[in-house]
Structure formats: structure tokens, C-alpha cells
Design brief:
458 residues; alpha/beta; Gyrase A, domain 2; Four Helix Bundle (Hemerythrin (Met), subunit A); Rossmann fold; 3 domains; seven-stranded mixed sheet; six-stranded mixed sheet; 16 helices; MnmE_helical; potassium; metal ion binding; cytoplasm
């Protein structure tokens, strides 16, 4: 079935040097050809070429814009359909006018993510690769981009297909046992082989699931909260990490009244960094609200950077807060090393086993040590995506968890000498669940939901 030709603006809407209107579908060349005037018609130009000309309003013969039209004929295109990309100046009015002309002369407005959806439906990419496209667009660090790029190139697909093939091999042996039940040695050998191969698949699934924490962090960012008493250097730390003066820094305690959020790249790890109001008892109504929000942020954070001042002794309030987060991922930062020491570091080390980093934010000292500690805490000291297959998508994680449960049931049943055809049910379920990761046998409703999260024009 031939799909309608779709059109959309594929670049951010607004003033810019260049903007692109993209068409995809069986009539893409015909529709664009009605609007384009150049030395050759678009039907005459070679595929995968870019051609200088003008967009004309066919109804008035008015020249609308000077353009470069890229022509890409199926099947070697992103969607495996004919594609025309009209490159024009980035004025809002101009780009909208060209889009409206394409719609007026036969195209339909593309839905969010519909170009990538067509790439999936036409078999160019699997569902995990399609999701990798959006992860790549949204990535906030080089490492996150590398993970998404690997998924776009089919790294996860190859991994999943290998696991599914292993399960098919097991099922083939099970079929031998079912077809020839009179041979006792076949049943025993089949069960032994099933357990050996199923354990291998289970190990690989668990290996992927183990990577999900790091993958999710690189995809979504590590929720990190900076806490401490007023005027210990929390906002200075935020400003240093993001290399900007977003937070107001003064000598007046209680300056930060609300929560500030910023993304920052720390050794390839994206931190969703939250600067909070200083936690202390206060009669100021506005500051009190900020303190309550700080306490709430503390309970939701995946990493807590607790800032102490080197020139102030440890207080009961500090110890109360540190006691409350003993089981969390905490790095204690002793700031203001340039000032005379009043803090008993030995007491801090004896009472808690949190990593301690000493800094002087104003002098830019110690921040590299902090970045190393964060990488060590969550990635064993080395953040690398070069040869790794990371699981970062929540849908993938859920399906892998279900797959792990199903194959665990199969292994347990085999150990209990459950009839082999019953064990087969859980193996088939594992195979099907793994298939859903890459888009085998998924519902149309799920496909629509996933691609609706994409931006227009992609």
C-alpha cells in the first residue's frame, strides 16, 4: 500500500541562515516539481544531487524564494521513499509559505516522527534504531551521543537478534525431544542442553540489564542536588560547573530562595544539577519555602553533593542531615580551603564513610577531583561507550526484565523435571518479548505512541 506524501519543516522554526522543508512519498517529486524552477526539472536531475533554482507559486507565477533542492530517489533514502528537501533562507514567513505551497499542491502535513516511522514501517530500521534517533537528538554529552549512535547503527538489534537465535536453537532441540519421546537419552540430553544454553541467554540478558543504570544516566542525566548550610559555596559550585553566573553569589546568607536546575557535562556524565536554598531554621517565609523544597529535592536525588565550609565547625544540623542520607550516594565537599580551617575533618571521617573532596571554588581548585569521584561512584571510574551496548530506554528495560523472568521460569521448570513442552512455553515467551524490543510483533497503538514523542520533521 502506497502511503500519502508528507511534508514538514525539518529545521527549528525561527530566524536562521538555512531552513529545510522535507517531502517524502510517491508524489514527492511531482509535488515539489510543481513549485520548483531551475535549469532542469526535478524529474530530470540525478538522484542524490542538490540543485539550484527558485520556488514559484504556480497560481500567480510569483517567485517565492531562491532555493537548493535536494532530490533522493527510493529506495536509498531515509524513509525508502522518494524524498525532496527544499533548502531556503531561514525566515519564518518564507519557510511557512513554502510548506503551505507543498500542502496546497498534494502533500499532507507530517505527524511528529512520521519520517522515522516510515523508515521503520518500510524496513530500513528496527524499532530500537528508531528510538535511538530520538535519543541522539536529545543527548546532552558526547558519551550519550555515542550510546545513541550505536543504537541507531543497530548495535542493540544485533545483540537482541543473537539472543533470539540462541533461543531458536534451544527450541529446535526441544522439538527433537517432543517428536521422538521414545528415546530416553534424547530427553536427558535435550534438558541438559536446554539448561546450558538458557543459562547463557539469561547471563547475557542480565548483563544488558546491569548496563541499564549507566545507560539511563547517560540518556536522561543524573539527578544531582547541591545541599548545605547557607553561604558555604553551593551556588559558586553550580556556577563553576556550568561556567556561567546563573546563581546569585553574595556574602549574605539565604540569598538562594528557590531551586535552580542546569545540565552539566562531568567526564561524559550529564548531571541534572540542582542548586538549593541553604538548609537552616529561618523565620523568613519565602526562604522557609525554599528550605522545604531543598529537603524535598534531597529525597529525590540520585547524587547528593553536600557542601561544608572549611572555616566553620561541623554543626548538629549538618550531622542530622548527613545521618538522614547515610544510605544514599553522597559526596562531601569541603569548600573554602583558602580560609583558615575550623572544620574537624577527622570527626567527619570517623562518623561517615562518604567520599570527601576538598575544594576552593573561588580559586578553581579540587573540582577535577570531584568529577573523578562522580565517575568512580557511578561508572567505576571510567565512562566509555566505545564498545559497549548500553540499555537506556525504559521500554527496553521493562521488556528485558520480563524476558529475564520468563527464561528464569524455564530454567527452574527444567530443573524440576517439568515436561519439556511446558518448558517450551516460557522459552517462546522469552523469544517474543525480546522481539518486541526491536519491533517484532508490536501493536500499531504502541508504534503510534512511540513516534508521537518525536519532533516534527524527523
Amino acid at each position: 500500500m502506497q502511503l500519502e506524501t508528507i511534508s514538514s519543516i525539518s529545521t527549528p522554526v525561527g530566524e536562521g541562515a538555512i531552513a529545510i522543508v522535507r517531502l517524502s512519498g510517491i508524489d514527492a517529486l511531482e509535488i515539489a516539481g510543481k513549485l520548483y524552477r531551475g535549469k532542469k526539472t526535478l524529474d530530470e536531475v540525478d538522484t542524490h544531487t542538490i540543485n539550484y533554482g527558485h520556488i514559484i507559486d504556480p497560481d500567480t507565477d510569483e517567485v517565492v524564494e531562491e532555493v537548493m533542492a535536494a532530490v533522493m530517489r527510493a529506495p536509498k533514502t531515509y524513509t525508502r521513499e522518494d524524498i525532496v528537501e527544499i533548502n531556503c533562507h531561514g525566515g519564518i514567513n518564507t519557510i511557512n509559505r513554502i510548506l503551505q505551497l507543498t500542502l496546497k499542491h498534494g502533500a499532507r502535513m507530517a505527524e511528529p516522527g512520521e519520517f522515522t516511522k516510515r523508515a521503520f514501517l518500510n524496513g530500513r530500521i528496527d524499532l530500537s534504531q528508531a528510538e535511538g534517533v530520538m535519543d541522539f537528538i536529545r543527548s546532552k554529552t558526547d558519551e550519550a551521543s555515542k550510546v545513541a549512535s550505536g543504537q541507531m547503527q543497530g548495535r542493540l538489534k544485533v545483540y537482541i537478534e543473537s539472543l533470539r537465535q540462541s533461543i531458536l536453537n534451544i527450541l529446535a532441540q526441544v522439538e527433537v525431544n517432543i517428536d521422538y519421546p521414545e528415546y530416553d537419552d534424547v530427553e536427558e540430553a535435550t534438558t541438559e542442553l536446554l539448561l546450558e544454553e538458557a543459562e547463557k541467554v539469561k547471563t547475557e540478558i542480565e548483563k544488558l540489564l546491569k548496563s541499564s543504570r549507566q545507560g539511563r544516566i547517560m540518556r536522561e542525566g543524573l539527578s544531582t542536588v547541591i545541599v548545605g548550610k547557607p553561604n558555604v559555596g553551593k551556588s559558586s559550585l553550580l556556577n563553576y560547573l556550568i561556567q556561567d553566573n546563573k546563581a546569585i553569589v553574595t556574602e549574605v546568607a539565604g540569598t538562594t530562595r528557590d531551586i535552580l536546575e542546569e545540565y552539566v557535562n562531568v567526564n561524559g556524565i550529564p548531571l541534572k544539577l540542582v542548586d538549593t536554598a541553604g538548609i537552616r531554621d529561618t523565620d523568613d517565609i519565602v526562604e522557609k519555602i525554599g528550605v522545604e523544597r531543598s529537603r524535598q529535592a534531597l529525597t529525590e536525588a540520585e547524587l547528593i553533593l553536600y557542601v561544608l565550609s572549611n572555616n566553620e565547625p561541623l554543626t548538629s544540623e549538618d550531622m542530622e542531615l548527613l545521618d538522614s542520607v547515610r544510605d544514599e550516594n553522597v559526596i562531601v565537599i569541603i569548600n573554602k580551603l583558602d580560609l583558615d580551617s575550623e572544620l574537624d575533618v577527622a570527626e567527619l571521617e570517623n562518623r561517615y564513610d562518604f567520599p570527601i573532596v576538598k575544594t576552593s571554588i573561588t580559586e578553581g581548585k579540587g573540582v577535577d577531583d570531584l568529577e573523578d569521584r562522580i565517575a568512580e561512584l557511578f561508572f567505576g571510574g571510567q565512562v566509555s561507550s566505545a564498545d559497549s551496548t548500553y540499555l537506556s530506554n525504559n521500554r527496553h528495560i521493562s521488556l528485558l526484565e520480563q524476558s529475564n523472568s520468563a527464561i528464569s521460569d524455564a530454567i527452574e521448570s527444567a530443573h524440576m523435571d517439568v515436561p519439556i513442552d511446558i518448558v517450551q512455553i516460557d522459552l517462546v515467551k522469552t523469544w517474543e518479548l525480546l522481539g518486541e524490543v526491536i519491533g517484532e510483533d508490536v501493536s500499531e497503538q504502541l508504534i503510534d505512541q512511540l513516534f508521537s514523542q518525536f519532533c516534527l520533521g524527523k
